Structure formats: structure tokens, C-alpha cells
Amino acid sequence: MSLLNIVTTPSSKLKKPSEDIKKEKIKEFKSLIKNMLETMYLSDGIGLAAVQIGLNINLAVIGKEATLDDKDLILINPKIIKHSWRKIIAEEGCLSVPGITKRVPRFAKIKVKALNQDGQSLNFDASDFLARVIQHEIDHLQGILITDYV
């Protein structure tokens, strides 16, 4: 495994929307996923999107600290397909925006559709902290940073 370089602001790479990964190509990303998880944990992060390491692909990893089952969550081509009307505003930090925290509104509950690292379909509900982390990572995949919130 190897530690990956995290792209930080003001890099324009962080502002580019990412592209979907074809299902038949997912197996090619297994070692990248392991390296992303290692980089995230060694950087004291909770989540990491591929765009944060300079790759313009729809891939995000979320650490077990945010999940309810104490397992890392791998999201490939994630989409929010439903959300609550209620939003919660809370402080967020970001590995790509070092030294800055921002109050960001996020949906309290979301329904997510994605693929996992084996190419299997995921369709699940998330709430509270996990919902916040997923929305933060999906924002990255769409070229949105916490500094874009007023």
C-alpha cells in the first residue's frame, strides 16, 4: 500500500465533476481503494473522494467511524435518489481545504444508490452523521467544496 497525495485548494482539479466508472472496470480499482483508505486513515479523515487524489472518477471511500456496522464503505457511482425535506447545519472540515471549517446544511436522511468494490448494487438509507459524510463526498465528485457554501 502507498500513501497518496491529497489535492488541496486552490487546485482546479477539485472543481471538475467526476465521471462514472464502468461496471466491468471496477476490479481494476481494488488496489486504489486500499490506498485511498490507508491515505484517509493516515490523514485523520472520515471520507475521501477520488477527485481529492487527482482522479476524475466517481469513487469515494468512507471510514468505519461514520458507518453503523463498523466497516469501511466503498461507493462507486453514488447517487442520492431520495432525501428528507429537513436539513441539519453543522461544522465540516475537509482534507482538501486544510485549516478551514464551515457550517454546511445537509439533508438529515438520504437514500443512496451505488455500486460496491465488487460491482454489486447498493441501495440503502443513511441518516445523521453517515448521511452528512456521504453528501460531503458526493459533493466532491460533483466539483463542490465546503467553501462553496455561504
From TrEMBL:
Keyword check for DNA-binding: no
Co-factor note (free text): Binds 1 Fe(2+) ion.
Biological processes, Gene Ontology terms: translation
Domain of life, per lineage: Bacteria
Record-linked Gene3D superfamilies: Peptide deformylase
Reaction catalysis annotation: N-terminal N-formyl-L-methionyl-[peptide] + H2O = N-terminal L-methionyl-[peptide] + formate
Positions with a binding annotation for Fe cation: C94, H136, H140
Cited InterPro entries: Peptide_deformylase, Peptide_deformylase_sf
Keyword list, A-Z: Hydrolase, Iron, Metal-binding, Protein biosynthesis
Keyword Transcription regulation included in the entry's annotation: no
Cofactor requirement: Fe(2+)
MF (Gene Ontology): metal ion binding; peptide deformylase activity
EC number: 3.5.1.88
Catalytic machinery residues: E137
HAMAP family the record matches: Pep_deformylase (MF_00163)
NCBIfam families: pept_deformyl, PRK00150.1-3
Family the UniProt entry places it in: Belongs to the polypeptide deformylase family.
PANTHER family, per the entry: PEPTIDE DEFORMYLASE
Cited function: Removes the formyl group from the N-terminal Met of newly synthesized proteins. Requires at least a dipeptide for an efficient rate of reaction. N-terminal L-methionine is a prerequisite for activity but the enzyme has broad specificity at other positions.
UniProt protein name: Peptide deformylase
Name of the gene: def
